[in-house]
């Protein structure tokens, strides 16, 4: 598989690079971004944090707005940011042109329903195809962590919960914690997975956490002035699931913060240190 | 004068707020952003760094991409980011719709030629009207620093050089150092100021520096892989002027860096500390 480099910018002593490649899993061309800390030029292999962004985002939002490069450079952490859905002229989007489903809103699952099933396989892309590419083309080890925001927080939790042992650590900002029970999740799941709700359970972080056998540690940050907190994000479902199944969830309600990247930038360093501790 | 708050987001323990107000100087409504560190709620007055952005920017670019809030919160520094030109339906832009003149490209000067002279008075807005507003409505002292990027680096240098004593310190990233001698500057100056080149000298940082009597310290960062370095930015003119007139210019050529906000984010902390040292 080949990667086409489309940009290359020095940042905090390392390099922010963007690549385009053909995704076999998604059946389309994809763009992702990678931050390579200065240690990437020293010969060894470095651990990788995969960052999953939220609704409407691309690979660019986190790299431009999170302010994560400085500490990643200090910690020797590679960061990889994929796009949030398959893309391209033949990839169907929301039938009504809405922003909360389809293009920019792939929900990091494998769709089973038409017309989505052909391209919308973001889970397999994020968990398998992209790491294989990253580990083949960059000085990246197989030590992986995963995190994300909102839809991407849901994605990070679900990827970690469905694939025990694949990630050394998982965290999330403002995740859609119980998509079966919120409008964003119900819209996406009913289309991608069909109306049979029992099929939704394997893509819902709170359900998966309540059933997970291996003990799991989770760090979740949530702003208490987040406009989506009550109707869409519902972290209390995650808290109940963790409690019932005996998992170690640290949910930090951050007073005054909203759903924006200003919130992420305020606490990303805590998450980077959390992952670095598990990865090295 | 009244300020209308249009957004308010917690960031790094402080607040990022945006305001709309009527500018008497510019004859239009303007939006600016302010970062208030946590110390702003403690009763005293804090020093202010004015940040001037480059071509095509608004108040948002620096706040979203520079990663400056964390250290500003630590240092107790207010940051104010104005827009880069007058705005509105009756404000003329580039006749050909180009991005390097007019709307988003006011060059921080006072225009003398029609049809620009009515609205394009960004120097007076940045140096006088905006600080008066800021100092009246926020816990801001009259201790001021100024910095900026590209067109805004030119603006920061020129504002400081034309107003000795008004700023405790000045710095710039990738400034248009000698606008009389580059295409961006010549296009803007010939329209805003007319074809008589002798009138341009009072808005050219290198000319002003060569003639400045009071000793001035300047910190300038410049990436050596900046696509605009050779034809537009020309920092060597600034170096020569500083040398000839005996000013203390520290020009740091940063290897590998380009003209983007990744460059600014990589070194903004050095500038914040530089200004904080002069301000407190």
UniProtKB/TrEMBL annotation, chains A, B:
SUPFAM superfamilies the record matches: alpha/beta-Hydrolases
This enzyme's EC code(s): 3.1.2.12
UniProt GO cellular component terms: cytosol
Record has Cell wall biogenesis/degradation as a keyword: no
Location of the active site: 150, 226, 259
Catalytic activity: S-formylglutathione + H2O = formate + glutathione + H(+)
Protein name: S-formylglutathione hydrolase
Protein's organism: Pseudomonas eucalypticola
Organism taxonomic ancestry: Bacteria, Pseudomonadati, Pseudomonadota, Gammaproteobacteria, Pseudomonadales
